[in-house]
Design brief:
- It is a single chain.
- The protein has 375 residues and is of the alpha/beta class.
- It contains twelve helices and 14 strands.
- The strands form four sheets. It has a seven-stranded mixed sheet, sandwiched between helices.
- 45% of the residues are buried.
- The mean pLDDT is 96.
Length: 375
């Protein structure tokens, strides 16, 4: 296993994986319709619900083959009844993507748009919810483009007060930030294997309320491949994915799940927090500024403002770090030049210390003075 080069990914996913997760994909070929593979997937579905402390009689996990965006598509096209509306709390790239998906299906959408650097206004959300036609409220937990943490528990409470179901994109918080679906008022959440679970790309999942999924059988079927009820019903009846699953990716996810339980929810979150704090410490020492107020950050993604230095060149510093085994990532804030450093994956504080040694070298090589300055 030592022959596998270890890269430190400070991008917002896919995340750095363990060698044991990588090697879990090297298995004998198997037809995914075999009972042995169905048993494997059933245990994985159960464990996915357990991570968010869901009651297994009330919640289930439905697996899909695809990137995280497939989950957004699935929830939106499957969970809005005919003639009803969805309210999207929109303060970032991924909630904007949800609005775009609504538009693509001609689903009536109340776009509650806010600045991507600000928290939403709960009073405005409640005012909008007084419209009886809103059946679904949708938001992100952490907006991955910025690192902003939305107040999901409070938004979910409002959704339930007005009889709407609450859907949360937890793609970049699931299996990292501790989540309790009951406490946090979540009816549906979602993620992909390559982020908090620290597995491989290609496997995504929706965790949701069984009763609502079964009710959705009577809603318009807006997609064939991405229909939540169809996939759920097929799993329940056969134990299998309706369409061909990413077999080796499932094996990697099963191994990652074993490692999740070995580390433990609180210990894993403490490790991610150590990494996050170490990133902030390194940035502070170099004089870099955050784009998002620190008290609003989720504790996983830091958006960093470019310094006002003519020598600064993100792509040159990226390439230098990449050549040394560290990956940094561009920002996603319009009209602001930013890059992102993230506390995901199988990394710890010592990896961040090694990164900043390389980062400092890179800044010196391209001629950026430290501590950096802002006008």
């Amino acid at each position: 296993m030592d022959i596998i080069k270890r890269n430190i990914l400070l991008n917002p996913g896919p995340s750095t994986t363990t060698n044991s997760v990588k090697m879990a994909q090297v298995v004998p070929d198997i037809c995914p319709r075999e009972k042995d593979f169905s048993i494997l997937m059933q245990q994985l579905r159960t464990d996915l619900v357990r991570i968010v402390h869901g009651d297994l009689d009330k919640y289930t996990a439905v697996l899909f083959c695809g990137s995280g965006t497939i989950n957004i598509d699935v929830c939106i096209n499957s969970l809005v009844p005919e003639g009803k509306k969805i309210l999207v709390v929109n303060n970032g790239l991924y909630s904007t993507r949800a609005v775009e998906i609504c538009n693509s299906y001609n689903i009536q959408c109340v776009d509650m748009k806010y600045s991507i650097t600000e928290l939403p206004n709960l009073d405005e959300i409640e005012s909008a919810l007084r419209d009886d036609d809103i059946a679904v409220v949708y938001t992100t937990h952490q907006e991955t483009g910025t690192g902003l943490l939305n107040p999901i528990r409070e938004i979910g409470e409002l959704a339930h007060k007005y009889g709407a179901i609450f859907v949360v994109d937890t793609t970049s918080t699931y299996a990292m930030v501790p989540i309790d679906v009951e406490r946090d008022n979540i009816d549906f959440c979602m993620a992909s294997a390559q982020k908090g679970l620290m597995a491989m790309t290609g496997l995504s999942f929706v965790i949701g309320n069984k009763k609502v999924i079964e009710q959705s059988k009577n809603y318009p079927m807006r997609s064939y491949y991405c229909n939540l009820y169809m996939q759920y019903e097929f799993f329940e009846r056969t134990g299998e994915m309706h369409f061909t699953p990413p077999v080796q990716t499932v094996y990697a996810a099963v191994q990652a799940m074993k490692e999740y339980w070995q580390e433990g929810e609180q210990a894993k979150w403490a490790r991610h927090t150590r990494v996050f704090d170490a990133i902030h410490k390194g940035l502070d020492e170099l004089g870099f500024k955050d784009a998002i107020r620190r008290e609003w950050q989720a504790g996983l993604v830091i958006s960093v403002l470019y310094p006002d230095d003519d020598a600064w060149d993100f792509y040159r510093i990226h390439d230098y770090c990449y050549s040394k085994g560290f990956t940094i990532f561009p920002g996603r804030i319009e009209a602001k030049n930013t890059f992102r450093l993230c506390a995901l994956g199988a990394i710890d504080e010592c990896d961040i210390e090694d990164f900043f040694a390389v980062f400092r070298e890179g800044l010196e090589k391209i001629g950026v003075k430290t501590p950096v300055t802002y006008l």
